[in-house]
Specification:
With 404 residues, the protein is α/β, with parallel strands linked by helices. The chain contains 10 helices and 18 strands. The radius of gyration is 23 Å and the shape is globular. Bound molecules: adenosine-5'-triphosphate. Keywords: ATP-binding, Cytoplasm, Disulfide bond, Nucleotide-binding, RNA-binding, Transferase, tRNA processing, tRNA-binding.
Length: 404
Protein backbone atom coordinates (compact mmCIF):
# COMPACT_ATOMS: atom_id res chain seq x y z
CA UNK A 1 0.00 0.00 0.00
CA UNK A 2 1.14 3.49 -0.81
CA UNK A 3 2.51 5.44 2.12
CA UNK A 4 0.05 7.99 3.45
CA UNK A 5 1.18 11.61 3.45
CA UNK A 6 1.43 13.00 6.95
CA UNK A 7 -0.17 16.37 7.80
CA UNK A 8 0.01 18.36 11.00
CA UNK A 9 -3.09 20.52 11.27
CA UNK A 10 -3.11 23.59 13.50
CA UNK A 11 -6.08 22.97 15.77
CA UNK A 12 -7.08 26.25 17.39
CA UNK A 13 -10.17 24.98 19.15
CA UNK A 14 -12.31 26.78 16.55
CA UNK A 15 -14.72 25.37 14.00
CA UNK A 16 -12.62 26.05 10.89
CA UNK A 17 -9.58 24.07 11.90
CA UNK A 18 -11.77 21.28 13.32
CA UNK A 19 -13.41 20.81 9.94
CA UNK A 20 -10.03 21.15 8.19
CA UNK A 21 -8.77 18.19 10.24
CA UNK A 22 -11.90 16.17 9.51
CA UNK A 23 -11.64 16.78 5.75
CA UNK A 24 -7.96 15.84 5.65
CA UNK A 25 -8.73 12.58 7.35
CA UNK A 26 -11.54 11.90 4.87
CA UNK A 27 -9.07 12.55 2.05
CA UNK A 28 -6.84 9.79 3.35
CA UNK A 29 -4.03 11.77 4.98
CA UNK A 30 -2.42 10.69 8.18
CA UNK A 31 -3.48 13.60 10.37
CA UNK A 32 -1.96 14.92 13.60
CA UNK A 33 -3.63 17.76 15.49
CA UNK A 34 -1.43 20.37 17.13
CA UNK A 35 -2.45 23.24 19.39
CA UNK A 36 0.01 26.02 20.11
CA UNK A 37 -0.03 28.19 23.14
CA UNK A 38 1.00 31.69 22.10
CA UNK A 39 0.48 33.76 25.16
CA UNK A 40 2.32 34.01 28.40
CA UNK A 41 -0.13 33.76 31.25
CA UNK A 42 0.76 37.17 32.64
CA UNK A 43 0.05 38.80 29.28
CA UNK A 44 -3.26 37.04 29.13
CA UNK A 45 -4.61 37.64 32.60
CA UNK A 46 -4.58 41.39 32.05
CA UNK A 47 -8.03 41.20 30.56
CA UNK A 48 -8.71 37.63 31.57
CA UNK A 49 -10.12 37.08 28.15
CA UNK A 50 -7.73 34.95 26.16
CA UNK A 51 -9.17 31.54 26.94
CA UNK A 52 -6.32 29.43 25.68
CA UNK A 53 -7.05 26.75 28.26
CA UNK A 54 -10.57 26.35 26.98
CA UNK A 55 -9.38 26.50 23.37
CA UNK A 56 -6.75 23.84 23.90
CA UNK A 57 -9.29 21.59 25.61
CA UNK A 58 -11.67 22.03 22.68
CA UNK A 59 -8.86 21.26 20.25
CA UNK A 60 -8.05 18.10 22.19
CA UNK A 61 -11.69 16.99 22.27
CA UNK A 62 -11.96 17.47 18.51
CA UNK A 63 -8.83 15.37 17.99
CA UNK A 64 -10.28 12.69 20.23
CA UNK A 65 -13.55 12.71 18.31
CA UNK A 66 -11.71 12.41 15.00
CA UNK A 67 -9.47 9.78 16.47
CA UNK A 68 -6.23 11.53 15.54
CA UNK A 69 -3.12 12.01 17.68
CA UNK A 70 -2.92 15.37 19.44
CA UNK A 71 -0.12 17.54 20.78
CA UNK A 72 0.02 20.93 22.43
CA UNK A 73 3.17 23.01 22.11
CA UNK A 74 4.18 26.12 23.96
CA UNK A 75 5.39 28.79 21.53
CA UNK A 76 4.75 31.69 23.86
CA UNK A 77 8.43 32.60 24.09
CA UNK A 78 8.85 32.68 20.31
CA UNK A 79 5.55 34.51 19.99
CA UNK A 80 6.66 37.14 22.44
CA UNK A 81 9.97 37.63 20.66
CA UNK A 82 8.64 37.74 17.13
CA UNK A 83 5.15 39.20 17.48
CA UNK A 84 4.53 40.90 20.81
CA UNK A 85 7.84 42.78 20.94
CA UNK A 86 7.41 43.82 17.33
CA UNK A 87 3.93 45.15 18.14
CA UNK A 88 5.23 47.32 20.94
CA UNK A 89 8.18 48.65 19.02
CA UNK A 90 6.08 49.46 15.95
CA UNK A 91 3.47 51.38 17.95
CA UNK A 92 6.21 53.11 19.87
CA UNK A 93 7.57 54.34 16.54
CA UNK A 94 4.19 55.56 15.39
CA UNK A 95 3.54 52.69 12.99
CA UNK A 96 0.56 50.36 12.64
CA UNK A 97 1.67 46.72 12.61
CA UNK A 98 -0.38 43.71 11.57
CA UNK A 99 0.23 40.85 14.00
CA UNK A 100 -1.94 38.38 12.05
CA UNK A 101 0.23 38.63 8.96
CA UNK A 102 3.40 38.36 11.01
CA UNK A 103 2.04 35.40 12.97
CA UNK A 104 1.48 33.46 9.75
CA UNK A 105 4.92 34.22 8.38
CA UNK A 106 6.88 33.88 11.62
CA UNK A 107 4.95 31.41 13.74
CA UNK A 108 2.43 29.21 11.93
CA UNK A 109 4.47 28.76 8.76
CA UNK A 110 7.87 28.90 10.37
CA UNK A 111 8.24 27.71 13.95
CA UNK A 112 5.06 25.68 13.95
CA UNK A 113 5.97 24.26 10.54
CA UNK A 114 9.40 23.25 11.81
CA UNK A 115 7.81 21.54 14.82
CA UNK A 116 5.59 19.65 12.38
CA UNK A 117 8.57 18.64 10.30
CA UNK A 118 10.19 17.18 13.39
CA UNK A 119 7.18 14.88 13.45
CA UNK A 120 8.06 13.99 9.86
CA UNK A 121 5.08 15.84 8.46
CA UNK A 122 4.90 16.42 4.71
CA UNK A 123 2.50 19.34 5.15
CA UNK A 124 1.06 21.81 7.62
CA UNK A 125 -2.65 22.59 7.32
CA UNK A 126 -4.72 25.42 8.74
CA UNK A 127 -8.37 26.42 8.71
CA UNK A 128 -7.70 29.56 6.70
CA UNK A 129 -10.19 30.58 4.02
CA UNK A 130 -7.79 30.60 1.10
CA UNK A 131 -6.67 28.20 -1.59
CA UNK A 132 -3.47 27.00 -3.12
CA UNK A 133 -2.89 26.72 -6.86
CA UNK A 134 -0.03 25.68 -9.08
CA UNK A 135 1.32 26.93 -12.37
CA UNK A 136 4.45 26.25 -14.38
CA UNK A 137 6.87 29.11 -14.98
CA UNK A 138 10.11 28.56 -16.85
CA UNK A 139 9.60 24.84 -16.45
CA UNK A 140 9.32 25.07 -12.67
CA UNK A 141 6.31 24.59 -10.42
CA UNK A 142 5.17 27.86 -8.88
CA UNK A 143 2.63 27.84 -6.05
CA UNK A 144 -0.19 30.35 -6.05
CA UNK A 145 -1.97 31.86 -3.08
CA UNK A 146 -5.62 32.16 -4.07
CA UNK A 147 -8.63 33.74 -2.40
CA UNK A 148 -11.00 31.62 -0.35
CA UNK A 149 -14.24 30.74 -2.12
CA UNK A 150 -16.35 32.54 0.49
CA UNK A 151 -16.06 36.22 -0.43
CA UNK A 152 -16.96 37.32 3.10
CA UNK A 153 -14.27 35.16 4.64
CA UNK A 154 -11.34 35.33 2.25
CA UNK A 155 -8.23 35.32 4.48
CA UNK A 156 -5.55 35.32 1.79
CA UNK A 157 -4.54 38.84 2.86
CA UNK A 158 -3.26 37.39 6.16
CA UNK A 159 -0.98 35.04 4.23
CA UNK A 160 0.43 37.65 1.86
CA UNK A 161 3.94 37.37 3.32
CA UNK A 162 4.36 33.63 2.72
CA UNK A 163 7.04 32.53 0.30
CA UNK A 164 7.22 29.65 -2.17
CA UNK A 165 8.87 27.34 0.31
CA UNK A 166 6.19 27.93 2.92
CA UNK A 167 3.37 27.62 0.38
CA UNK A 168 4.77 24.38 -0.96
CA UNK A 169 4.23 22.83 2.46
CA UNK A 170 0.84 24.39 3.21
CA UNK A 171 -2.63 22.89 2.84
CA UNK A 172 -5.87 24.85 3.19
CA UNK A 173 -8.57 22.18 3.35
CA UNK A 174 -11.59 24.47 3.82
CA UNK A 175 -10.66 27.19 1.32
CA UNK A 176 -13.12 25.98 -1.31
CA UNK A 177 -16.06 26.08 1.13
CA UNK A 178 -18.47 28.71 2.38
CA UNK A 179 -18.46 29.35 6.12
CA UNK A 180 -22.04 28.04 6.31
CA UNK A 181 -20.90 24.77 4.72
CA UNK A 182 -18.07 24.47 7.23
CA UNK A 183 -20.51 24.86 10.13
CA UNK A 184 -22.84 22.34 8.52
CA UNK A 185 -20.07 19.75 8.26
CA UNK A 186 -19.09 20.40 11.88
CA UNK A 187 -22.69 19.81 12.97
CA UNK A 188 -23.08 16.67 10.90
CA UNK A 189 -19.88 15.29 12.40
CA UNK A 190 -21.00 16.32 15.86
CA UNK A 191 -17.85 18.35 16.53
CA UNK A 192 -18.11 20.34 19.74
CA UNK A 193 -16.79 23.46 18.00
CA UNK A 194 -19.72 23.56 15.53
CA UNK A 195 -21.43 26.54 17.16
CA UNK A 196 -18.38 28.28 18.52
CA UNK A 197 -18.15 31.98 17.79
CA UNK A 198 -15.56 33.11 15.22
CA UNK A 199 -12.38 34.57 16.60
CA UNK A 200 -11.57 38.02 15.22
CA UNK A 201 -8.22 37.62 13.61
CA UNK A 202 -5.71 35.98 15.82
CA UNK A 203 -5.57 35.76 19.57
CA UNK A 204 -4.78 39.42 19.54
CA UNK A 205 -7.09 42.32 19.12
CA UNK A 206 -10.18 40.15 19.49
CA UNK A 207 -9.39 38.73 22.85
CA UNK A 208 -6.93 41.11 24.42
CA UNK A 209 -8.13 44.63 23.66
CA UNK A 210 -5.52 46.68 21.85
CA UNK A 211 -5.50 49.79 24.07
CA UNK A 212 -5.16 47.65 27.21
CA UNK A 213 -2.45 45.64 25.58
CA UNK A 214 -0.42 48.66 24.54
CA UNK A 215 -0.66 50.21 27.97
CA UNK A 216 1.20 47.25 29.43
CA UNK A 217 4.43 48.59 27.98
CA UNK A 218 3.85 52.01 26.50
CA UNK A 219 3.46 54.57 29.24
CA UNK A 220 0.88 57.37 28.96
CA UNK A 221 2.37 60.68 27.89
CA UNK A 222 0.24 63.81 27.58
CA UNK A 223 0.54 65.69 24.31
CA UNK A 224 -1.31 67.97 21.93
CA UNK A 225 -3.82 67.29 19.21
CA UNK A 226 -3.66 69.64 16.23
CA UNK A 227 -6.16 70.00 13.43
CA UNK A 228 -4.86 70.65 9.92
CA UNK A 229 -7.13 72.66 7.60
CA UNK A 230 -8.28 71.05 4.38
CA UNK A 231 -6.90 73.82 2.25
CA UNK A 232 -3.40 73.56 3.67
CA UNK A 233 -0.73 74.06 0.97
CA UNK A 234 0.76 70.63 1.77
CA UNK A 235 -2.20 69.14 -0.11
CA UNK A 236 -1.97 71.24 -3.21
CA UNK A 237 0.21 68.71 -5.05
CA UNK A 238 0.00 65.63 -2.85
CA UNK A 239 -3.72 65.07 -2.87
CA UNK A 240 -4.31 63.94 -6.41
CA UNK A 241 -2.76 62.12 -9.29
CA UNK A 242 -1.99 64.48 -12.14
CA UNK A 243 -4.06 63.44 -15.15
CA UNK A 244 -2.61 62.07 -18.32
CA UNK A 245 0.90 61.14 -17.21
CA UNK A 246 2.32 57.88 -18.47
CA UNK A 247 3.63 55.88 -15.46
CA UNK A 248 7.04 55.79 -17.14
CA UNK A 249 7.16 59.56 -17.10
CA UNK A 250 6.60 60.38 -13.45
CA UNK A 251 9.44 62.38 -12.04
CA UNK A 252 10.75 61.31 -8.65
CA UNK A 253 9.55 64.44 -6.89
CA UNK A 254 5.95 63.94 -7.99
CA UNK A 255 5.97 60.29 -6.95
CA UNK A 256 7.39 61.14 -3.54
CA UNK A 257 4.82 63.86 -3.07
CA UNK A 258 1.90 61.55 -3.78
CA UNK A 259 3.23 58.45 -2.04
CA UNK A 260 5.42 59.31 0.94
CA UNK A 261 3.88 60.10 4.34
CA UNK A 262 3.23 63.83 4.63
CA UNK A 263 5.27 65.71 7.20
CA UNK A 264 3.29 68.07 9.40
CA UNK A 265 4.51 70.74 11.78
CA UNK A 266 2.51 71.91 14.76
CA UNK A 267 2.53 75.49 13.53
CA UNK A 268 0.61 74.34 10.45
CA UNK A 269 -2.60 73.82 12.42
CA UNK A 270 -4.58 74.75 15.48
CA UNK A 271 -4.47 72.98 18.80
CA UNK A 272 -7.81 71.34 19.39
CA UNK A 273 -7.25 69.09 22.39
CA UNK A 274 -4.92 66.77 24.29
CA UNK A 275 -4.17 63.07 24.15
CA UNK A 276 -2.53 60.59 26.50
CA UNK A 277 0.17 59.27 24.16
CA UNK A 278 0.64 59.55 20.38
CA UNK A 279 1.90 55.93 20.32
CA UNK A 280 -1.60 54.66 21.13
CA UNK A 281 -3.06 56.16 17.96
CA UNK A 282 -3.08 55.17 14.34
CA UNK A 283 -3.82 56.96 11.07
CA UNK A 284 -7.50 56.81 10.18
CA UNK A 285 -8.57 56.34 13.77
CA UNK A 286 -11.65 58.23 14.90
CA UNK A 287 -12.45 56.73 18.27
CA UNK A 288 -10.60 57.64 21.43
CA UNK A 289 -9.67 61.23 20.56
CA UNK A 290 -12.18 62.61 23.04
CA UNK A 291 -12.48 65.97 21.39
CA UNK A 292 -16.09 67.10 21.27
CA UNK A 293 -18.02 69.85 19.52
CA UNK A 294 -16.19 69.71 16.21
CA UNK A 295 -19.32 69.27 14.08
CA UNK A 296 -17.75 66.97 11.52
CA UNK A 297 -16.00 63.84 12.86
CA UNK A 298 -12.32 64.16 13.65
CA UNK A 299 -9.81 61.65 12.23
CA UNK A 300 -6.15 61.04 12.96
CA UNK A 301 -4.21 61.90 9.78
CA UNK A 302 -0.69 61.55 11.20
CA UNK A 303 1.11 60.88 14.45
CA UNK A 304 4.52 62.13 15.49
CA UNK A 305 5.69 59.89 18.30
CA UNK A 306 8.98 61.71 18.69
CA UNK A 307 7.31 65.04 19.41
CA UNK A 308 4.26 63.27 20.86
CA UNK A 309 1.81 65.14 18.63
CA UNK A 310 -1.32 63.90 16.90
CA UNK A 311 -2.46 65.61 13.70
CA UNK A 312 -6.11 65.39 12.80
CA UNK A 313 -8.44 66.40 10.01
CA UNK A 314 -12.14 67.22 10.04
CA UNK A 315 -14.53 65.11 8.01
CA UNK A 316 -14.30 61.92 6.00
CA UNK A 317 -13.23 63.77 2.87
CA UNK A 318 -10.19 65.43 4.40
CA UNK A 319 -7.27 65.22 1.94
CA UNK A 320 -4.86 64.19 4.70
CA UNK A 321 -6.98 61.12 5.37
CA UNK A 322 -7.55 60.11 1.75
CA UNK A 323 -4.42 59.57 -0.28
CA UNK A 324 -3.74 58.18 -3.72
CA UNK A 325 -0.35 56.71 -3.18
CA UNK A 326 1.92 54.78 -0.89
CA UNK A 327 5.53 53.69 -0.91
CA UNK A 328 7.21 50.39 -0.01
CA UNK A 329 10.99 50.59 0.52
CA UNK A 330 13.01 48.08 -1.48
CA UNK A 331 13.86 45.86 1.48
CA UNK A 332 10.17 45.50 2.39
CA UNK A 333 8.90 44.29 -0.98
CA UNK A 334 7.84 40.65 -1.11
CA UNK A 335 6.87 38.71 -4.24
CA UNK A 336 4.99 35.46 -3.71
CA UNK A 337 5.22 35.12 -7.48
CA UNK A 338 8.96 35.60 -7.91
CA UNK A 339 8.49 34.98 -11.61
CA UNK A 340 6.35 38.14 -11.86
CA UNK A 341 8.73 40.37 -9.96
CA UNK A 342 8.79 43.91 -11.37
CA UNK A 343 12.19 45.11 -12.48
CA UNK A 344 13.45 48.59 -11.76
CA UNK A 345 12.07 51.13 -14.20
CA UNK A 346 9.05 48.97 -15.00
CA UNK A 347 5.45 49.26 -13.97
CA UNK A 348 2.34 47.09 -13.90
CA UNK A 349 -1.38 47.24 -13.19
CA UNK A 350 -2.71 45.17 -10.30
CA UNK A 351 -5.56 45.36 -7.83
CA UNK A 352 -4.53 46.09 -4.26
CA UNK A 353 -5.74 46.42 -0.71
CA UNK A 354 -4.23 47.78 2.49
CA UNK A 355 -6.39 45.94 5.00
CA UNK A 356 -8.27 42.72 5.54
CA UNK A 357 -11.63 42.53 3.75
CA UNK A 358 -11.15 45.85 2.01
CA UNK A 359 -12.54 45.74 -1.54
CA UNK A 360 -9.77 45.60 -4.13
CA UNK A 361 -8.88 48.82 -5.97
CA UNK A 362 -6.97 49.08 -9.24
CA UNK A 363 -3.51 50.52 -8.89
CA UNK A 364 -0.40 51.20 -10.91
CA UNK A 365 2.77 49.74 -9.41
CA UNK A 366 5.89 51.66 -10.33
CA UNK A 367 9.25 50.11 -9.48
CA UNK A 368 12.08 52.55 -8.91
CA UNK A 369 15.58 52.24 -7.56
CA UNK A 370 14.59 52.93 -3.94
CA UNK A 371 11.41 50.87 -3.86
CA UNK A 372 7.87 50.41 -5.05
CA UNK A 373 5.38 53.24 -5.59
CA UNK A 374 1.73 52.22 -5.58
CA UNK A 375 -0.70 54.69 -7.17
CA UNK A 376 -4.36 53.84 -6.63
CA UNK A 377 -7.12 54.80 -9.06
CA UNK A 378 -9.26 55.81 -6.06
CA UNK A 379 -8.03 57.52 -2.90
CA UNK A 380 -7.47 55.19 0.04
CA UNK A 381 -8.67 56.05 3.52
CA UNK A 382 -6.16 55.91 6.36
CA UNK A 383 -2.95 54.64 4.79
CA UNK A 384 -0.67 54.04 7.77
CA UNK A 385 3.00 53.17 7.81
CA UNK A 386 3.67 49.66 9.08
CA UNK A 387 0.51 48.33 7.45
CA UNK A 388 0.78 45.78 4.67
CA UNK A 389 -0.28 46.44 1.10
CA UNK A 390 -0.98 43.34 -0.98
CA UNK A 391 -1.49 43.24 -4.74
CA UNK A 392 -3.58 40.80 -6.70
CA UNK A 393 -4.24 39.48 -10.15
CA UNK A 394 -7.91 38.58 -9.78
CA UNK A 395 -8.09 35.94 -7.06
CA UNK A 396 -4.34 35.49 -6.80
CA UNK A 397 -2.08 37.34 -4.35
CA UNK A 398 1.03 38.30 -6.30
CA UNK A 399 3.01 40.13 -3.66
CA UNK A 400 2.94 42.41 -0.65
CA UNK A 401 4.98 44.96 1.22
CA UNK A 402 5.24 47.05 4.34
CA UNK A 403 4.10 50.64 3.82
CA UNK A 404 6.80 53.18 4.64
N1 LIG B 1 -3.60 28.32 18.92
C1 LIG B 1 -3.55 27.72 17.74
N2 LIG B 1 -3.00 26.48 17.63
C2 LIG B 1 -2.93 25.85 16.43
N3 LIG B 1 -3.37 26.38 15.29
C3 LIG B 1 -3.92 27.60 15.33
C4 LIG B 1 -4.04 28.34 16.54
N4 LIG B 1 -4.62 29.53 16.26
C5 LIG B 1 -4.87 29.53 14.94
N5 LIG B 1 -4.45 28.38 14.36
C6 LIG B 1 -4.56 27.99 12.93
O1 LIG B 1 -4.65 29.13 12.11
C7 LIG B 1 -5.90 29.16 11.42
C8 LIG B 1 -6.43 30.57 11.30
O2 LIG B 1 -6.49 31.15 12.56
P1 LIG B 1 -7.56 32.24 12.98
O3 LIG B 1 -7.19 32.70 14.34
O4 LIG B 1 -7.70 33.21 11.88
O5 LIG B 1 -8.82 31.35 13.19
P2 LIG B 1 -10.22 31.17 12.53
O6 LIG B 1 -10.25 31.58 11.12
O7 LIG B 1 -11.23 31.69 13.47
O8 LIG B 1 -10.22 29.57 12.54
P3 LIG B 1 -10.70 28.59 13.69
O9 LIG B 1 -12.20 28.56 13.55
O10 LIG B 1 -10.06 27.29 13.32
O11 LIG B 1 -10.22 29.15 14.98
C9 LIG B 1 -6.81 28.25 12.25
O12 LIG B 1 -7.85 27.73 11.48
C10 LIG B 1 -5.83 27.20 12.74
O13 LIG B 1 -5.60 26.20 11.76
Amino acid sequence: MENKKRVVVGLSGGVDSSVAAYLLKEQGYEVIGMFMKNWHDETVTISNECPWMEDSTDAMLVAEKLDIPFQAIDLSEEYRERIVDYMFSEYENGRTPNPDILCNREIKFDIFLKAAQKLKADFVATGHYCQKGEVKANGKTVYQLLAGADPNKDQSYFLCQLDQDQLSKALFPIGHLQKSEVRKIAKEQDLITADKKDSQGLCFIGKVRLPEFLQQQLKPKKGDIYVIPENHPVYSRSAQIPAGIDPDDYDQETLDMICLPLKYEFNQGNKIGEHNGAHYFTVGQRKGLQVGGTGKPLFVIATDTRENIIYTGLGEEHPGLNRYGLFVPKKDIHWIRQDLKLQEGHNARYQARIRYRQPLTWATLIMRENGLYVLFDEPQRGIASGQFVAWYDGKETIGSGVIS
